[in-house]
Amino acid sequence: MSISKLKLTLAATGLVLAASTGNASASYCGDGKTVTFAGIDWESGAFITEVMKTILAKGYDCQVDSIPGNSVTLEQATANNDVQIFAEEWLGRSDIWNKAVEEKKVVAVGKTFVGASEGWFVPEYVIKGDASRNIEAKAPDLKSVSQLTDAKIVELFADPEEPSKGRFLNCPSGWTCEGVSTAKLDAYKLGETYVNFRPGTGTALDSAITSAYLQGEPILFYYWSPTAIMGKFKLVQLEEPAYNEACWKELSSATGKRDEGCAFPSVDVSYGVNSTFAQEAPEIIAILEKATFPLEDVNGSLAYMTDKKVDAVAAAAEFLKTKGDVWGKWVSDEARGKIEASLK
């Protein structure tokens, strides 16, 4: 081989090696790009966002940020790629998100948590009692909303202001769940025997539940998970007829029929991600695909926030310090070591 051909061959080989090395080391964060999260303002979303921000920042040297706003604004920002990750997207519940999915501007990645639910609840001690607090089981056979018509059950949940009726503690007026639960009261033929009590705010709802629970009193109420209340108290969800689309359509419409009631639809919660970002950052998508939070840990972390009066940043740090067996499976060994070192 001539000297000139040898030089050309070596030069070509060098270019190939340089290109392959560049591709191997290239990454979204390695290129200096910022990963912007939706600054979700509800507790579970804020907590999960802070955990994932810390994992990317401390484990993978990413520049991370978050921008505040309401869910509709932040979903639109995700569609526009002003936000890359919306950490707790309740799929199918938002017209903005559904439209962005149809336009292929966003994708759902992984499962943020599994098993979230909403429905009608009673404290466990109503059914099982609580020997540690000398509370007897007042309704040991209570399992279903169909039993709420029983006169003894109505009396058990007596309304303080109208003791001849029971009290159902609904959502605050203006919340979507308030309208649905009001429709269910009629569908289950409970409208005449229960007072439909609507607290003024979410805080008032939580306060009413907490007060009754700490005093060991019977209470019937709407609630959902993940929440601090679910993490702090032992509650039992009452059974309802299975969800079906036709029933739900009527219940969720202000002018719908009230001929039958059914359970709330199942909940799918994922990381809402901008489609362009998903293509540019496969290494981050791989983490999100694994990052499923156990629901009990989310509830527990929210209860920690409430009990300790700390914010989502502090709760995220506590989770990362104490739940390495959970999040450690989402990341590389090198990243786990860096994250753990940052927490000391």
Would you summarize the structure shown here?
The chain has 344 residues and is α/β, with parallel strands linked by helices.
Q: Which keywords apply here?
A:
16 helices, three-stranded antiparallel beta sheet, 16% strand, D-Maltodextrin-Binding Protein, domain 2, 10 strands, disordered N terminus, alpha/beta, 344 residues, 2 domains, five-stranded mixed beta sheet, globular
Order of helices and strands: HEHEHEHEEHHEHEHEHEHEHHHHHH
By CATH reckoning, the class of the largest domain would read Alpha Beta
Count up the domains: 2
Silhouette: globular
| Cα Rg | 26 Å
Walk across the major sheet and give the strand order.
7-6-8-5-9
**Average predicted confidence as pLDDT:** 91
Helix content: 40-55%
**In angstroms, what separates the terminal alpha carbons?**
60 Å
Uncertain residue ranges: 1-26
Oligomer: single chain
List how many beta strands DSSP finds. 10
- The CATH topology label of the largest domain is D-Maltodextrin-Binding Protein, domain 2
CATH superfamily of the largest domain: Periplasmic binding protein-like II
CATH architecture of the largest domain: 3-Layer(aba) Sandwich
Instruction: Note the main sheet.
Output: 5 strands, mixed
Count of DSSP-assigned helices: 16
Label the structural class: alpha/beta
- Portion in strands: 15-25%
